[in-house]
Amino acid sequence: MQTKSLASKPVRFLYSWFLFFIVWLAFTTSFQLPEVLTGLAVSLILAAISYETFTGWGFKGIKLRNMWWSMVYILNFIWLMVKANLNVARIVLTPSLPINPGIVEFETKLTNVYAKMVLANSITLTPGTFTVDVVDNKFYIHWLDVTVTDPHEVYKEIAEPFERILLKIFN
Amino acid sequence: MGLSLNIIDIIVLAIISVALILDFYRFVRGPLASDRVMAADTMTVTTASLLVFLGYLFDRYIYLDIALIYAVLGFIGVIVIARYLEGGV
Amino acid sequence: MEQVLTYLGYILIVIGAIFLFLGGLGIVRLPDIYSRLQAGTKASTLGAMSLILGVGFLNPAWLVKSLVIVIFIALSNPISSHALARGSYRHNIKPWSKEDIDAYRQYLKEEGQKEREEEAKQTENKD
């Protein structure tokens, strides 16, 4: 996390309150007054407990450009996920079970912790690969069908399609 | 109160049932605790989607809430057990 | 328009059910916990997401709620499978591997050595 862009405490508090309240509204999908008031109270308590670790940037992270690239990222991600799912379906349905599992590593170019989290979760959600651990810049990936073990090759194979867009959002 | 199912509904219900049986097979066989947890997690997700589909068939909105809460509880359970396996509880 | 949504919803539901089935098949057939986590939880995740979204299309009044469930599953499932995988690995469950490719074991070994050295230093200092 870049400490220079850290938002002030009240802003971060308001931001977490706002986000928790949005989540409450999404979960209840109800706009009756008692429920909304309860939601405000509950999210206030949650925000008071967790705002220091929950967010660093506050509202600064929300920009039109970021939203656009996030949309691109989500669509790209869905496409990759469907493709990988078909691949795993093919493996599971083949009687001989053509797999070669192993744990490989690569180094990411991302510096932001949130970006790393998004990358790790995306890799996990794409079948065939998932993140076992993240240590500083190193990702340890369990791969169902290992074709290359060299970290640079692995990076090109697994992380590049995601990182290309993530670098645009977070830098 | 009659429940009218068309052929696709029946096929979908049958496929989901088979999926649940397969998950349950792994849950019973193990052999490791984490295999069972994973099978239970898969069953949770499968059951949540079955609940949503049943909610559509019965036309009851409340089933969606139940599915959501079920998914949330399953998630928390898996996290707790994973922490326990790692030795951090 | 409604007709199109109905067809789309049913297509998504059938695809979802098939992927749920493939997930179940995957966790029965694959050899170890890590590979099963791959096929099992992830094929099931896509299946569940597709099926629930399909129900949302069939009944547009439910679309918001079903989207919430889909987003929740998409966010929570990678976290739980990652936690389970790491927990299993640190619980000394070795992955099944044909060619014995395991970069993580190397890392854990080095980390363990460092920790042991540090502990040794600390006990020396105490003496």
Q: Would you give an account of this structure?
A:
The complex is a heterotrimer of chains A (171), B (89) and C (127). Chain A is mostly helical. Chain A has helices at residues 9-28, 33-54, 64-93, 113-125, 151-170, and strands at 102-107, 129-135, 138-143. Chain A has a 3-stranded antiparallel β-sheet with strand order 1-3-2, with helices on one face. In chain A, helix 1 crosses helix 2 (33-54) and helix 4 crosses helix 5. The model of chain A has no long low-confidence stretch (mean pLDDT 78). Chain B is mainly alpha-helical. Chain B has one domain (7-86). Chain C is mainly alpha-helical and 127 residues long. Chain C has one domain (2-99). In chain C, helix 1 runs antiparallel to helix 2 and helix 2 (33-58) runs antiparallel to helix 3. The mean pLDDT of chain C is 80. Chains in contact: A-C, B-C. At the B-C interface, helix 1, helix 2 and helix 3 of B face helix 1, helix 2 and helix 3 of C.
Features of the shown structure:
B: mainly alpha; 3 helices; C: 127 residues; mainly alpha; 4 helices; 83% helix
List the SSEs and their pairings.
The complex is a heterotrimer of chains A (171), B (89) and C (127).
Chain A: H1 9-28, H2 33-54, H3 64-93, E1 102-107, H4 113-125, E2 129-135, E3 138-143, H5 151-170
Antiparallel strand pairs in A: 1-3, 2-3
Helix pairs in contact in A: 1-2, 3-5, 4-5
Chain B: H1 7-29, H2 33-58, H3 62-86
Helix pairs in contact in B: 1-2, 2-3
Chain C: H1 2-29, H2 33-58, H3 63-90, H4 103-126
Helix pairs in contact in C: 1-2, 2-3
Give a brief description.
The complex is a heterotrimer of chains A (171), B (89) and C (127). Chain A is mainly alpha-helical and 171 residues long.
DSSP summary: helix tally of chain B: 3
Domain count of chain A: the total is 2
Structural shape of chain B: flat
Radius of gyration of chain B: 16 Å
Average pLDDT over all residues of chain A: 78
Quaternary organisation of the protein chains: heterotrimer
User: Which percent range describes the beta-strand content of chain A?
Assistant: 5-15%
User: Biggest sheet of chain A: strands side by side, in what order?
Assistant: 1-3-2
The level of helicity of chain B is: over 70%
Low-confidence segments of chain B, ≥5 residues, pLDDT <50? Answer: none
